[in-house]
Amino acid sequence: MLYCFILNGCAAKRISEDQHQGDYQAAKAAFMRGDYAESIRLLRPLADQGDPEAQQLIGGFYENGKWVPQDFAEAAKWYHKAAEQGSVQGQANLGFMYAMGRGVSKNNVLAYMWLELAVAKGNADAMWNRRNVAAQMTPDEIKQAQRIAKEWKPNR
């Protein structure tokens, strides 16, 4: 989740690929040497410009309350931005937030829907969380969540 830098693809539209990769590499290096403030400083512009992986990482900083004040609503906001663009980790994290009612109103249908999308892309943690959410749902709620997930399209 937070501790994993995913260095694939570039969704940021206003900066060059080289600059993007350079900023990611610098953010990763800062994180690895324990300079979390610098890591956040480098990731924030990427997140603001629409990069889904930077968005989900910023969400992780806020969810965990390390290096920034813990703020579940802010974490959910960033996870939602990433999830809407198809970030698997963003979808898994947002599903967990809905399942727990962290920063968003607890909603098992939305939790299941986001977790279903992450499971479809191979996220093992989402599979476990989806199973736990399903145990609290009616069959009709599960069908509704599956239908929403099936109809969902990324917003890129």
Explain this structure:
The N terminus is likely disordered. This protein has eight helices and no strands. The longest helix has 16 residues. The radius of gyration is 16 Å and the shape is elongated. It has 156 residues and is an all-alpha fold. Helices cover 67% and strands 0% of the residues. The relative contact order is 0.11. The protein has one domain: Tetratricopeptide repeat domain (Serine Threonine Protein Phosphatase 5, Tetratricopeptide repeat, Alpha Horseshoe), CATH 1.25.40.10.
Find the CATH topology: Serine Threonine Protein Phosphatase 5, Tetratricopeptide repeat
Shape: elongated
Unreliable stretches (pLDDT < 50, length at least 5) are 1-15
Please describe the biggest sheet, giving its number of strands, its sense, and whether it closes into a barrel. none
The class by helix and strand makeup works out as: mainly alpha
| Beta-strand percentage range | under 5%
Highest-level CATH class:
Mainly Alpha
> H/E element string?
HHHHHHHH
Q: What's the tally of helices?
A: 8
Structure summary, number of beta strands: 0
Our measurement of the CA-to-CA distance between the termini, rounded to an integer number of angstroms, reads: 22 Å
| Overall mean pLDDT | 88
Instruction: Please estimate the helix content.
Output: 55-70%
